[in-house]
Design goal:
By secondary structure, the chain is an alpha+beta fold. The chain has seven helices and four strands, in the order ααββαααββαα. 33% of the residues are buried.
């Protein structure tokens, strides 16, 4: 026989297990901004201008779409502020290959990225970057664009 306390603990435990996927998705969203800045604190302009991932500094920051963006210089910050849509990564900084599959997946901007036709695309892994994005760039982008309209407001997938 269960005591009231044991039954309450079981109910709370079952409820917590049912909510675990929601907390995992929230954790993925929080991971995306874990540095306190969008795209892990990397300078979105530097991908375009020096073709290399460059960490930004809180000293040179700007706000865009509810996030703080860091830059390596005041010049890069000013370029971004003048036209943020030109420099911000596609799909809100989520994985381009993931978006093509209808999922929001956290990225590794320092490792897996490409600028295609002036747009920055980030990816989550070597497999996503090489086997999906680079193997069929235009197809991946086309599918990502179509899916992004549906998934932009959803929680991220588990890491």
């Amino acid at each position: 026989m269960f005591s009231q306390t044991n039954l309450s603990r079981k109910v709370v435990g079952i409820a917590a297990m049912a909510l675990l996927p929601l907390f995992s998705a929230q954790a993925a969203d929080e991971h995306f901004l874990s540095s306190g800045a969008a795209i892990g604190g990397f300078d979105a302009v530097a991908f375009h201008t020096v073709s290399t991932p460059t960490l930004g500094s809180a000293q040179y920051s700007a706000q865009y779409q509810g996030a703080t963006w860091h830059f390596a210089s005041s010049g890069n910050r000013d370029m971004f502020a003048a036209d943020p849509a030109k420099f911000a990564p596609a799909y809100g900084g989520w994985c381009a290959a993931g978006a093509s599959k209808g999922k929001k997946v956290a990225t590794k901007p320092d490792q897996f990225w490409a600028v295609v036709d002036g747009q920055l695309y980030l990816n989550s892994s070597e497999a996503a970057h090489k086997n999906l994005f680079l193997a069929d760039t235009s197809g991946t982008i086309r599918k990502g664009e179509a899916n992004w309209k549906r998934i932009f407001a959803t929680q991220a997938d588990r890491l």
